[in-house]
Each structure stands twice: as C-alpha cells, then as structure tokens.
Amino acid sequence: MRCPPVTCYAVLWLLTLVSGSWGQVNRLPFFTNHFFDTYLLISEDTPVGPCSFGMSRDPLCKEGSSVTQLLARDMDNDPLVFGVSGEEASRFFAVEPDTGVVWLRQPLDRETKSEFTVEFSVSDHQGVITRKVNIQVGDVNDNAPTFHNQPYSVRIPENTPVGTPIFIVNATDPDLGAGGSVLYSFQPPSPFFAIDSARGIVTVIQELDYEVTQAYQLTVNATDQDKTRPLSTLANLAIIITDVQDMDPIFINLPYSTNIYEHSPPGTTVRVITAVDQDKGRPRGIGYTIVSGNTNSIFALDYISGALTLNGLLDRENPLYSHGFILTVKGAPS
Ligand SMILES: *[C@@H]1O[C@H](CO)[C@@H](O)[C@H](O)[C@H]1NC(C)=O
Ligand SMILES: *[C@@H]1O[C@H](CO)[C@@H](O)[C@H](O)[C@H]1NC(C)=O
Ligand SMILES: [Ca+2]
Ligand SMILES: [Ca+2]
Ligand SMILES: [Ca+2]
C-alpha cells in the first residue's frame, strides 16, 4: 500500500519523539545463566577451540567444543556484546562477542589449578554490566602414578627369615578418587618376594641362598584404579643378597689315597690336602689338622698349606706300619 509522503513524515516524526523521551531510561541487560548463582563445572579434558575463531595459533589445532554460552536479556531488545575481563581469565577463556559462546584458549589442568573466578560482561552499547562466576575444573584420570625416592636398592643377608619386611616403595597419583589410588604389584611375580598391593611393603616369601643367587632385579608396577582407563608406571627394585657364613668347607680332589716308598726321607711331601669354604662371599681360610690314625706321629700336616709330610722313617717290616695308614684329617675355618 502506497502512503502519501505527508502522512509518512508525520508518523516517523511521532515515533522519533516517543523514542527520544523514553530513551532517557535505558535498561541495562542482565545475565540469565544459573551458574552465576552457583558454579560452572568444566572438565579438565575440554578441548581448546575453535581454530577458526583464532583462539589457537597451533597449525594442528583441532576443533574443540564450546564450554558454555552466556545468556542475557535486555528489556529494550538492544543488540548485546559479550566479553570476559581480567588478565588470567582472558588467557584461558574467550567469548564470541555476538553469541556469548565461551571457548577455552588453552588446556585446563585440575592438578595445577582447580578453580577460577572469571568475570564476564555484557553490554548493550549504552552500558556494561559484569558478573563473576566460580569455575570448578572437573577431574579426569590424566596422571600416572609417580614413584618417589628412586632408585630402589636394598641389601639383605641371605639368612633373612621368610616374612621379614625388607623395603617400602612409594608412588603417589594426584588425580581424584579411584584415579588417584595406587596399587602395587611385581611384574612378573617373584617366587622369593611379595609386595603388599596397598602399602608397597616388600617381604621375603621364600628362603634365600647367597650361594645360589646373589641379586634380584624386580619390576614394580604402580597402577591407579580408574575403572575405564587405569594408568601405570614401572620402577626397578634391586635386591642384593649378602653372604652369611652358613656353609661348611669341603675337601676337594677326594678320595685321598697315596703310596709312599718306605725309605723316603723325613720331610718328604706325601701329598697336599685342600679344602675350600663353600661360602662364596668372603670365603674363610681353612686350617688343617690330623684327627686320628697318625701312629707315632709319623706324619705332619701343615696347618696353613695342608701339606702332609713324613715326620720320621717308615719301615714296611714294622707291623705297625705294614698295613698302611688311614688318617682322618680335619679342615676347619681358621
Ligand atoms: C610417599 O611420598 C609422598 C610424597 O613424597 C609422601 O607425602 C608420603 O608420606 C609418602 N608415603 C609413605 C608411605 O612413605
Ligand atoms: C600394571 O598393572 C596393571 C594392572 O594389572 C596393568 O593393567 C598394566 O598393564 C601394568 N602396567 C604395565 C606398564 O605393564
Ligand atoms: Ca537497554
Ligand atoms: Ca591417575
Ligand atoms: Ca586429573
């Protein structure tokens, strides 16, 4: 419908007048999101986004999902502009001015910072209002346990009784709940040592023997108890077994049987007796003595060298000597 120019001018003039008088009492916009009254929860694994919005200079930037959308009302239906203020908040959060959509600028880490107070703003081009929101960073299981006081190494004597606690490993995990609760195990299990899964206490479960094994290299697995994606860390535990004098000496090159000519001069070496300590760690020297059978002390045995020598003259016709000799000798740790 065409309107005559004069009428249109009149209507337009009237509207301008009305608007002009009411414009003196502009009403400021206000936020309507409920989280301003409570808190806003953002999971620490929320991706940074979006690349096209210029939040990230990373060429490999993946499109993230938005954190939330700011909502506001303006009673005058003025066009609104959203924003975020504060140096720290602006490093972590970006707001699309027209839509109020909030994005992360850089990844969150609950273990570093679990809470933010962020001030958002909305403007109707005539005035700005700001409101603070408490942002809580939600946990995900994103840390594996960490072992403390490594390297792990312990020396124990070979006669350490079964059941003796010999070492404690300690790993902690900063995540919350099950994802921060650590269990220990040997990987693979050891027949000689057990580890308490909750406390990390290592105990002996089978008799040890230095003469068989002098050291054990065990791998401890610390795993958190997250249901869906448990994370684990390995550590080495060296257990060094030390020798205890728990072995008798043994004679070597047995049996000992020797022929001697009857006229051999005194001082002739008949043979050398040798015994060794079966303790391998610090084997002791052996002292040699004749226990029995040394008729008339006809033989001498050197305590240190084990050399058996003639101490007198042998005579086959002497009935005491004609059947030979059976000497019993002793080797004992000296
Ligand atoms: C384990 O290490 C942590 C961090 O050093 C410490 O706070 C904790 O007390 C340790 N736990 C044990 C059982 O030693
Ligand atoms: C540690 O033990 C857990 C639970 O048995 C297992 O799921 C995980 O694969 C082990 N970790 C490694 C590094 O082998
Ligand atoms: Ca307004
Ligand atoms: Ca964890
Ligand atoms: Ca975490």
Would you spell out the secondary-structure blueprint of this structure?
Elements: H1 5-22, E1 30-31, E2 40-43, E3 68-69, E4 72-73, E5 81-85, H2 87-92, E6 93-95, E7 101-104, E8 115-123, E9 128-138, E10 146-147, E11 152-157, E12 165-168, E13 171-172, E14 182-186, E15 193-195, E16 201-204, E17 215-224, E18 232-242, E19 249-251, E20 269-272, E21 275-277, E22 286-292, E23 299-301, E24 307-310, E25 328-333
Parallel strand pairs: 2-9, 11-18
Antiparallel strand pairs: 1-4, 3-7, 5-8, 6-7, 8-9, 10-13, 12-16, 14-17, 15-16, 17-18, 19-21, 20-24, 22-25, 23-24
Residues 44, 110-111, 139-140, 142-143, 175 line the site of one calcium ion.
Largest sheet: 4 strands, mixed
Number of helices: 2
Oligomer: single chain
- Rg over CA atoms, rounded to whole Å, is 46 Å
Distance between the termini: 130 Å
Description:
The protein is mainly beta. Helix content is 7%, strand content 36%. It has helices at residues 5-22, 87-92; strands at 30-31, 40-43, 68-69, 72-73, 81-85, 93-95, 101-104, 115-123, 128-138, 146-147, 152-157, 165-168, 171-172, 182-186, 193-195, 201-204, 215-224, 232-242, 249-251, 269-272, 275-277, 286-292, 299-301, 307-310, 328-333. A hairpin with a 7-residue loop joins strand 17 and strand 18 (232-242). One 2-acetamido-2-deoxy-beta-D-glucopyranose binds next to loops.
What are its keywords?
mainly beta, binds 2-acetamido-2-deoxy-beta-D-glucopyranose, binds calcium ion
Summarize the structure.
It comes from Apodemus speciosus (Large Japanese field mouse). The protein has 334 residues and is mainly beta.
